């Protein structure tokens, strides 16, 4: 049996991911091909340095960035500063509004997301 070209293309197409960050719920949802794939608890910006709202893209990634950023960093093209999704060296901060605007999650979660999503992935923060 032969596979037609469109079916072959679909068979080998990489999944498309997107991320939605819900600051009110302090939850981050990873979508795969438009369907909920996994949800993660997060920390967000404190009132004096809130997490920016809008639609952004992941523009860079780093392994073991050092400092408070935990195991991985995924930088966003957010205006007025360097914002990103990263791990944390303070896991007790997850679920709170304590960051300088970044989105924090547990290191095992950020490693999982980092390994799945490419640069260019859309991140919507509401």
Automatic annotation (TrEMBL):
CDD domains membership:
YkuD_like (cd16913)
Q: Which PROSITE patterns match?
A: LD_TPASE
Q: Which InterPro entries does the protein's record reference?
A: LD-transpeptidase (IPR050979), LD_TPept_cat_dom (IPR005490), Transpep_catalytic_dom (IPR038063)
Q: Does the keyword 4Fe-4S apply?
A: no
Question: In which pathway does this enzyme or protein participate?
Answer: Cell wall biogenesis; peptidoglycan biosynthesis
Any idea where the L,D-TPase catalytic domain is? 17-126
Alphabetical list of SUPFAM superfamilies matching this protein: L,D-transpeptidase catalytic domain-like
Q: Which residues cross the membrane?
A: none
Superkingdom field: Bacteria
Task: For this UniProt record, give its keywords in alphabetical order, as a comma-separated list.
Answer: Cell shape, Cell wall biogenesis/degradation, Glycosyltransferase, Hydrolase, Peptidoglycan synthesis, Transferase
Keyword Glycosyltransferase recorded: yes
Active site residues of this protein: 86, 102
One Pfam assignment: YkuD
Which family is annotated? Belongs to the YkuD family.
Q: What is this protein called?
A: L,D-transpeptidase
